[in-house]
Design goal:
This protein is of the alpha+beta class. It is built from 12 helices and 6 strands. Strands 1, 2, 3, 4, 5 and 6 form a 6-stranded mixed beta sheet that branches. β4 and β5 form a beta hairpin. α8 packs across α11 and α8 packs across α12.
């Protein structure tokens, strides 16, 4: 189907944005196709897919619990990302699992000396030790794993049984903040093989996502799944580059609750959510720099992220065109 380019109301696309979109042969859904797909996409994967994900998490827990060096340690093994947050879609083929050592904690500044791991920590559980033991535990259990990745240890898929697994060795990270509940924010820190650290907040992401979903009568995660599926389609057709599925979750998290609660069908909610995200991306005074991840702490755009504001604009522009929204 061929249609004229439609622009989100109250938003003027630049001539360059139009030329960029016209450079791609982007098919458009009919109204009937869009409604049918949105009603399909809003739902999480079926029961069989859920069982595969649960089996993967259970097997990693078994590998860690049976590994002798981990006996008696305060250690958490839990899935993170789209699977526990219930925003996964069928195209999300793997599961992310953290193996988090809770003692010693890691932090920074004066608190690092007072509460956590000193700069000259002399105990046995260094970052190198933790990673090696996680690699050994997984190798003993699964037979072979890929240890060459920067952050995670990769466990390959077994077709029909379980998905591929990214296992992240990490430490408990604490940021002390007098404005936070209990005076601290708890997350995790993983140290890459390249020497750089990455701080994540999976527990906060889980709590905030559930709260927003409840406050929006479950529409938040409906719209997240729709955008993830659209992104998968666009990437598979070469219209955009493949992006982390978490990126869609980050963008929709910044849609105000009142937009997600707008009167009308889910189709209307998806359209107005895309419009809202695009306005934030193209607003005055670099408004996109105020967008935050679902954890409520990290900024969506900035140093260390795997995407850019340009990636976001291209995703929303081409999603709008693909879904064949008008005016």
């Amino acid at each position: 189907m061929t249609a004229s380019l439609s622009v989100p109301a109250r938003t003027l696309w630049t001539a360059q944005a139009r030329r960029n979109l016209e450079a791609f042969v982007v098919r458009q859904l009919t109204y009937e196709q869009r409604i049918a797909l949105i009603n399909k996409w809003k739902n999480p994967p079926g029961a069989s897919e859920q069982l595969r994900l649960e089996r993967a998490e259970r097997m990693v827990k078994q590998a860690v619990l049976r590994h002798e060096p981990f006996q008696g340690l305060d250690i958490t093994v839990a899935s993170k990302g789209s699977y526990p947050n219930n925003t996964n879609v069928r195209g999300d083929s793997d599961v992310d699992i953290m193996v988090k050592l809770n003692d010693p904690i890691h932090t920074e500044g004066l608190a690092a000396w007072w509460f956590g791991q000193p700069a000259r920590y002399s105990g046995p559980w260094t970052r190198q030790k933790l990673r090696q033991e996680v690699e050994d535990a997984l190798t003993n259990h699964f037979g072979w794993v890929d240890t060459d990745h920067n952050l995670a240890v990769y466990v390959p898929e077994v077709v029909g049984s379980r998905p591929s697994i990214d296992v992240v060795p990490c430490f408990k990270w604490v940021a002390y903040d007098t404005t936070a509940p209990d005076g601290e924010c708890v997350g995790s820190v993983v140290y890459g093989r390249n020497g750089k650290r990455v701080i994540n907040w999976p527990e906060l992401q889980l709590v905030n996502g559930r709260t927003k979903n409840t406050n929006t009568k479950y529409r938040y995660k409906f719209v997240v799944r729709v955008l993830k599926n659209v992104e998968n389609d666009l990437a598979s057709e070469g219209v955009i580059k493949a992006l982390p599925s978490y990126f869609s979750e980050c963008l929709i998290y910044n849609v105000p609750d009142d937009v997600l609660l707008i009167d009308g069908s889910l189709d209307t909610v998806v359209r107005e959510s895309l419009r809202e995200v695009y306005q934030q991306l193209t607003g005055a005074w670099f408004s996109y720099l105020r967008m935050v991840e679902p954890n409520g702490i990290k900024k969506v755009f900035g140093d260390g992220q795997k995407w850019t504001e340009k990636d976001a604009r291209e995703l929303i522009e081409r999603a709008w065109h693909y879904l064949n929204y008008e005016g």
